[in-house]
Amino acid sequence: MKSILLTLFLFLSLSGISHAQQKSTFVYVEIPAISEHRRDSELKELFNAIEGISAISYCENLHLAIIRTESNPETLKASIAQRMHDLRFRYSIKSNVSFERVMQFCN
To answer: pTM of the prediction?
Structure first.
């Protein structure tokens, strides 16, 4: 009986992890004004007030912030747009971009 419960628990746990990974999406924000030397601190400062961000990376070749989220990407895009507008940053939120395509230019 214990082995059946353990198997069931492992199956449900792994199913939950797989579902969470599938739910993760990326939002791409072009920010040409971020400096090469201070980008990590600048990105943290820009986005620290926005909820729903799991991770942030920066592609120097494209001046692109790559933001991973498990929340609604449209809500996150609206929050990012408001934050960038408030700080008077030049930016562009990219749509219909695949992660694989971005990585071709960022590696």
So the answer is: 0.71
